Amino acid sequence: MAATLVPPSFLFRFSLPVRHAPRIPGTDDKLLNLSEAHRLPDLGPIEGRTGFADVRLGWNERGLGISVEVRGKKKGVIGRQPIPSSADRLRLWIDTRNTQNIHRAGKFCHEFHLYPAAGPGPKGDPVAELRTIDRARESPSTANLSLVRTRLEALPGGYRLEAWFPAEVLTGYSPGEQAKLGFYYHFRDTELGDQFLSMGREFPFDYDPSLWQTLELGGT
Q1: What is the pLDDT of residue 3?
Q2: What is the distance between the alpha carbons of residues 167 and 178, in angstroms, rounded to a whole number?
Q3: pTM of the entire structure?
Q4: I want to staple 80 with a disulfide (CB 3.0 to 4.6 A). Which of 2, 55, 100, 115 is the partner?
Q5: Is the pLDDT of residue 41 over 60?
Q6: pLDDT tens digits for 100-158?
Q7: CA atoms within 13 A on the CB side of 99
Q8: Whether the Cβ atoms of residue 212 and residue 184 lie closer than 8 Å to each other
Q9: Chain mean position to CA 46
Q10: Residue 47's domain is classified under what CATH number?
Q11: What is the number of structural domains in the chain?
């Protein structure tokens, strides 16, 4: 009976390896170019869901890069909107101290929103925002988001959205001292639906770091 009431992913704590990528970020037309080896596993099948987005991560001492590739679309992207849920967007939660025994975010916890276009509609370059996490005890230091680099590449039936988050915008980021990060994502495509790292909306992952998973920053 309990198995039908509790999502299977809630019963596990996932630790996901992230490969070192010493050459990122690259040029504006080849920002990340992360290989298949940098792809995060799709945890959706544990919940009976099939993911539609290929999510990849790479890191080095200078920062963290993320790439999301979407296929199977018939419509164009929807950029930032007055109502955020009406846009295509990637929401990222990053805890540079991996403090998973707390239920309210602290100063090392970040929530970024990444839009494929500045909007409204499909116009303008991709844009990143730093949001205040609901119920947070403390917030990270004010970040200069102009340092975040983004790129959108059109693909047949979809697109690839990339972002580079330098250490300067990640309070406490120090891979030499802390090689584990708390991490969660929710990707919303207005045409294809929602993709979550693990559990879905039935749990308050948007403000509770104890529900985030762990990234292990490893070698090549």
Answers
A1: 47
A2: 13
A3: 0.91
A4: 115
A5: yes
A6: 889 999 999 999 999 999 987 777 899 999 999 999 999 999 889 999 999 999 999 99
A7: 14
A8: yes
A9: 19
A10: 2.60.40.1190
A11: 1
Distance from C-alpha of 166 to C-alpha of 101, rounded to nearest angstrom: 26
Q: What is the 3-state secondary structure (H, E, C) of the chain?
A: CHHHHCCHHHHCCCEEEECECCCCCCCCCCCCCCCHHHECCCCHHHHCCCCCEEEEEEEECCEEEEEEEECCCCCCCCCCCCCHHHCCEEEEEEECCCCCCCCCCCCCEEEEEEECCCCCCCCCCCEEEEECCCCCCCCCCCCCHHHCEEEEEEECCEEEEEEEEEHHHCCCCCCCCCCEEEEEEEEEECCCEEEECCCCCCCCCCCCHHHCEEEEECCC
pLDDT of 2 above 60 = no
6 part of a folded domain:
no
- From CA 8, how far away is CA 198, in angstroms rounded? 9
Domain of 128 in residue numbering reads as 20-217
Choose among 38, 20, 40, 57: nearest CA to 179.
Answer: 20
| CA–CA distances in Å: residue 50 to residues 15, 93, 113, 180 | 20, 22, 23, 27
Q: pLDDT by residue (tens digit) across 167-177? A: 999 999 999 99
The region, left, alpha or beta by phi > 0 then psi within -120 to 50, assigned to residue 99 is beta
Of 54, 2, 49, nearest in space to 158 by CA: 54
Torsion-angle region of residue 88: left (phi > 0), alpha (psi -120 to 50) or beta? Answer: beta
Residue 4 counted as domain residue? no
